[in-house]
Amino acid sequence: MQSAQNRPDLYSNVARNIVAPAWALWERSPYLNHLRYLEESQYRSLDEVQADQWTRLKAVLKHAYETTAFYRERFDSIGIRPDDIRTWQDFNALPVLSKDDIRNNIDTMLSSVVPREQLIQRKTSGSTGVSLAVYVDDASRQLKRACTIRHDRWAGWNLGEVVACIWGNPEYKKSWRGHLRNAFLERAVYLDTLRMDEQAMLEFHRTVLRRKPTLFFGHAHSLYLFARFVERKGLEPPRPRGVISTAMVLHDFERAMIESVFGCPVTNRYGCEEASLLACECEAHDGLHINCDTIVLECLNGGGPVAPGEVGALVVTDLTNYGMPLIRYKVGDTGRMAMGPCSCGRSYPRLASLEGRIADYVRTPEGEYISGISLTENFAMDLAGIRQLQIVQRKIDYLLFRVVPGQGWSETDRKALARLVEKRFGTAMRHDVEYVDGIQNESSGKYRFCISELGGDQL
To answer: Model's pTM, two decimal places?
Structure first.
């Protein structure tokens, strides 16, 4: 008799060849057409890739100037019109867009020709603890959806196959349509990173052995934590074809543990809520290919590009979002650019490494582990009055919340924070709030949303 992990997944063919096209037709979504093009075009020459980028960039700049008050004023203030930008050097003269620029000007950044009711809000605080909302038009979202699937396939997965997600707050639970979509098309099973206790991990382990996912997807350290749990408990290891690690810096020791336990390569990925997938490793695992089909990615230091191998601030221009253009947006992360071509044959330039995102876990007095990335959604995003937030665990039963209060901060928010602490960490967890004017990056350039001072082999 075949084990659960070795039995063929016959339904995946149904999901891929029948359910996915039918659902796309019902949604009037072109993402499968985009996917076919992206699969065919990914081995274009670098000259072709950059020519396509330039054409898309010029169109976005023209659209932004003509349809948004923000960019029209920004361009006029420096005496530049879109037609004046004829080279990449001209483009580099445009000012960098900050998170505060977006926060303070969001209404004037929206295109006047794209109805607001047709835009999708994407809200994030990422690893910086700073809540931010942007809007995306549906055409952009569908192209990015196809890009994500193409990059998922680099890890060995295929559309319609089961995915094991070590993640928080799954979207599908928000509606009956989401439940149907997940059951028949996306086929994702979740381990909620807000509650990675022993019971939850054992239940998830049983589920993945039964559902036999071909892909594991999750926060870098969450994947590591689950892999180490499987090893320490002597459990039968899952055997996916690939693992995708995202949302945090993937350390070498984490990659080694995950690959040892799961018996397959880890694919490192970089993205942000504001512009979706930014870069991803291919099968060669030699740097992260920049997603040139939807973005321009710059690596800057002091306003100019850094040499390959040097650390710089990452700046993104979205080539597809016409509803709310993002031009030279400083995402708040740092990275290094790679030199030379990749052995996979794709010409897309690569990030050698991502240097920025680190978030520790909080450990509760009851022994549960809670992901710092997931906590972002439950504190910085849920408390509208918070400008910026950092959580520091000083003792097993004591947390310090460093809060940069926004204009709307009030005693009501302070009480709401206390309720969230009790809900997420239990009644035994004590806490204090320290009000500060700002929270600085570390000397390495990294911002840590969540810091554990417990020391030792905490996780």
So the answer is: 0.83
